[in-house]
Amino acid sequence: MVEWTEQERSTINKIFGSLNYDDIGPKALRRCLIVYPWCLKYFGDFGATHNAEAIQKNDKIAKHGIVVLHGLDLALKNMDCIKATYAKLSVLHSEKLHVDPDNFKLLSDCLAIEIASLMKSDFTPDVQASFQKFLAVVVSALGKQYH
Ligand code: ZNH
User: Fold this and answer.
1) Domain total for the chain?
2) Where in this chain does the record put each Globin domain (predicted)?
3) Atom 18 (ligand 1): residue with closest C-alpha?
């Protein structure tokens, strides 16, 4: 089981408590799809092309970015059993969506970059360390049901 210090718990809760999901979710997913264009193939029915402007303007991508961010609430509310909490979502991404699990890490890095640019000097190395640990546990849990 992953151990969390009180400091880590409070830092992670503070970050998420200050986030506007409707803003940061779309930004993180768009960044991921623009920087790592192969990720777009999983969103075929969203109708976006490999073009930054099309990705920025796509409402379905924006909405899905919000869904993904709310997906992180699961981990936030269940920090002591993240692996079990994501079992279903892991099966979905593996067996139904066939998302290469390497991409979870890429999206989590894009989210870190968006949060860094929002928080600026408040995103200290210490804060980043807690945040990256949280995301690493989520990424690992999402990849757990892959065979
Ligand atoms: Zn994912 C879906 C989360 C990543 C792709 N996702 C989804 C959902 C959720 C999530 C919550 C919904 C589900 C239901 O409906 O039930 N994701 C998530 C998270 C993460 C992710 C948390 C990390 C962090 N994804 C991802 C990636 C990708 C994806 C990276 C690719 C690249 N997802 C996806 C898809 C889907 C999902 C494709 C489906 C969509 C639709 O709607 O169609």
Assistant:
1) 1
2) 3-147
3) 68
**What is the model's pLDDT at position 25?**
98
Number of helices (H) and strands (E), helices first, in the chain? 8, 0
Amino acid at 102: D
Measured CA to CA in angstroms, residue 126 lies from 12, 59, 97, 121, 129 at distances of 11, 35, 35, 11, 5
CATH number reported for the structural domain that contains residue 17 in this entry = 1.10.490.10
pTM, two decimals, is 0.97
Residue 1 resides in a domain: no
Task: Copy the structure tokens of residue 135.
Answer: 């995301």
C-beta 35 within 6 A of ligand 1? no
- Buried/exposed code over 123-135 (b: 16+ C-beta within 10 A; e: otherwise): beeebeebbebbb
Closest atom, ligand 1, to C-alpha of 69? 22
Confirm whether 69 is domain-assigned: yes
Domain encompassing residue 60: 6-146
